[in-house]
């Protein structure tokens, strides 16, 4: 990935299939695409030991195998390793019950044979981006925590820069300036204070909210930047960015990244339970998710994107009022309206640059 500091083609891949022809086909497909570290096995009983030795970034796993089928392999991996290895199931089994069982056991994706080469490579690259971003965050967090005693201030400042830059990395996918996350995060902090959060919590909210759409890195441009209405399967794919973002941030112990994960996962939930990814309702949705929902929607509506024109302030406010008690928490809507002048000041202070 040029410019991101992450090279997915150096990722460690493990191919597991009992058919030598299938293994050779996958090895050639992946090698031709540029992947350099590919290991394979025909014996599913070796997977746990191979993973322990190689700590592979992604396992491409067949289901129908002797000795241990793919479900048994995933069960063994879950019992033996934490965090659970990333698994992409690649199988001729197309029945829905097989797909559901695989996903319940922790598979991150499911592709049926015969596979289409480009689709498989896109799915592999998306999973690796998510995995390697999370690994980079974990490594960086560990490195910084070792210096916390004598560099507390420097550690916090560095971590904030990483969060902001990763948030902007996702934002640049469909907004070239990245100013959306500046306006959205400052609005979120303002609303947090209005909703009774203390100063430390508001500061966390300011610095965690830029990560709300980090999961966009896993969504193909042809969907993310589509100018028209999504097809049903495209909309389902787009919805995955909330869970992808949470997966990237999972496992972090700091208050900042824990809140960032909570926001990434819940900022598309709706007060009436019709949101995604988990259909949470009312106060089941964390307060920070409810706050970021309205801050994100208002700024997105009033911003120009490659696929839409900016709405007027009046039209955006009308939509918020129409969705009071549906999409949005009524208490947060009230706080938003009470602080509208300050929110508009933020919008004006960090407006998009004018292009020739």
UniProtKB/TrEMBL annotation:
The keyword Nucleotide-binding does not apply. Pfam families: HD_5 (PF13487), Response_reg (PF00072). Keywords: Phosphoprotein. One of its GO terms (molecular function) is phosphoric diester hydrolase activity. Gene3D superfamilies: 3.40.50.2300, Hypothetical protein af1432 (1.10.3210.10). Residues 12-128 form the Response regulatory domain. The modification 4-aspartylphosphate is found at residue 62. Residues 155-352 form the HD-GYP domain. The keyword Endoplasmic reticulum does not apply. InterPro entries: CheY-like_superfamily, Cyclic_di-GMP/3'3'-cGAMP_PDE, HD/PDEase_dom, HD_GYP_dom, Sig_transdc_resp-reg_receiver. One of its GO terms (biological process) is phosphorelay signal transduction system. This is Two-component system response regulator. It comes from Oceanospirillum multiglobuliferum.
